[in-house]
């Protein structure tokens, strides 16, 4: 209990919206966006969270989350695991009976994440500019409650992701998500490639951007 009052995290924003991605798409969700990220993907749509923000104790975060009548909470960034106290926050949210998901780049170790958390791990493609930072040892820490996401910029990324699925037998680990870079790769083009190659993946389009455009904090 003392850690809830003393451990602090740098928070960019806490907001209530519809989940725009993953198998939880469309569900009212509280998003906790942590400040900071060691990666610089060229298509990043949350660069405003690289710096700034305010310090909150875990207890203060829980108080804000409790204002909203939903059981779903997503901890995101930036890269939330770049802050060590994120692990404490995830456990505190689970202890408070929330259904918690974590959006992580996959570049940092996920082995200590609370087992009750659904990990959404983004494997970086070559055109992201950060594929060399993928931590492939993280795959052994994923289960069927987790999801792997590929954000695709072009057909070269698509073929690369297809090879990674085959090389690592990713479909045996957990569900796989393919997402086109917004305003870059047309969704209908990606859909055609998936059907053509009969890949074992779920295509997703960012619902929040269809509803509200690229406005931050939604």
What do these coordinates show?
There is one protein chain. By secondary structure, the chain is α/β, with parallel strands linked by helices. A nine-stranded mixed sheet has the order 3-1-2-4-5-6-7-8-9. It has a single domain (2-212), classed as Aldolase class I (TIM Barrel, Alpha-Beta Barrel). The protein is globular. It has helices spanning 2-6, 58-65, 86-95, 155-168, 187-197, 207-212; strands at 8-18, 28-34, 54-57, 72-76, 99-104, 118-122, 147-152, 176-180, 202-203. The model has no long low-confidence stretch (mean pLDDT 94). Helix 4 (155-168) links the parallel strand 7 and strand 8 (176-180).
Strands in their spatial order, largest beta sheet: 3-1-2-4-5-6-7-8-9
- Give the % helix: 10-25%
Can you count the beta strands? Answer: 9
**Largest sheet data:** 9 strands, mixed
Number of helical elements:
6
Number of domains: 1
Question: What name does CATH use for the topology?
Answer: TIM Barrel
CATH architecture: Alpha-Beta Barrel
Structural class: alpha/beta
Cα separation of the termini:
31 Å
Portion of residues in beta strands equals: 15-25%
Q: Enumerate the spans where pLDDT stays under 50 for 5 or more consecutive residues.
A: none
CATH class wording: Alpha Beta
Corresponding CATH superfamily? Aldolase class I
The radius of gyration computed from the alpha-carbon positions, rounded to a whole number of angstroms, is 17 Å
- Average pLDDT works out at 94
